[in-house]
């Protein structure tokens, strides 16, 4: 990965650095997606096709912070939706499955494209709730979100 990063005036205020698999900063650069500098070149590795095996659970959040690292290390892919006001966490355990595994599972909700208008409307509603300091409305909103996610199987 090649990044253009800030530098002192003596270096023209910017310099190009190259990160390889052995660099400690590569994980940070992958995670930060451009916040450490402008990504000017990246190399992707192709992966063989696979399906995903998904298990979903709604759990009490008691001790969740102590369980997070173990949960995230156990699965290659995982989702956690933490509904603090409801003391619940919706966990998605996701593993690779062979491409020839039976089934044509389609995720109809979680990863569907969303219009900019929907995102802006949702953000405006949330900001209005925050500005009004309306904790009851906030809990009702997150409760609806939790119920929708659980009842739809998170789109699967």
> Per DSSP, what share of the residues sits in E-state strands of 2 or more residues?
25-35%
One letter per element, helices H and strands E, the order comes to EEHEEHEEHH
Shape: extended
Our measurement of the CA-to-CA distance between the termini, rounded to an integer number of angstroms, reads 34 Å
Query: What is the subunit arrangement here?
Result: single chain
Average pLDDT works out at: 81
Low-confidence stretches: none
What's this model, at a glance?
Helix content is 34%, strand content 26%.
Can you describe what's shown?
The protein has 156 residues and is an alpha+beta fold. The protein is 34% helix and 26% strand. It has 4 helices and 6 strands. Strands 2-1-3 form a 3-stranded antiparallel sheet, with no helix packed on it. Strands 4-6-5 form a 3-stranded antiparallel sheet, with helices on both faces. A hairpin with a 4-residue loop joins strand 5 (77-83) and strand 6. The longest helix is centred in the last third of the chain and has 17 residues, at 116-132. The relative contact order is 0.13. The mean pLDDT is 81.
